[in-house]
Amino acid sequence: MQAHDKSNGTVVVVVIKRVLTASLLSFAAISGVALAGSSSSLKPGQLYTSEFLTVTVGKPATKARIFVECLPTSGAAGGQWFGTVKLMHGSFKFDKQSTIHKLPSGTTNGVVDVTGKFTGGEFQGTWQLGGFACPKTSYRTKAGAGGSGS
Length: 150
Known about the structure:
Distance between the termini: 34 Å
Strand content: over 45%
Number of domains: 2
Strand order of the largest sheet: 11-3-4-5-6-7-8-9-10-12
Oligomer: single chain
Number of helices: 1
Number of strands: 12
């Protein structure tokens, strides 16, 4: 933030950022809130969610359980897939023929293509369930609930 000193026409840089940062750090220390920097490592047992995808990290963090749901808006049948993937340096890739559960009932075989990379405290990647009306979708998770997809 900047303030203008009209008496001599010079711009005075106000050090509000430092004050706000110090206040935020004090609040976090007092309330026990974890800051973004401390949540940037993969946590075994943690649930990471987005709109249509959930990643549950195993204990130890060498595998993850993935749940993907395709809910097309066109009235076409939807599908769900869940499976376990290997985590390598916080990343996974699954691109294989697999059983997909049809909604509201039944199963079918189709190619499940799901990728993810853990960075900055969240998983980011894409998913697609072959044979269903949902297009390849990008996602970004949040720890717990409330991620996004597009």
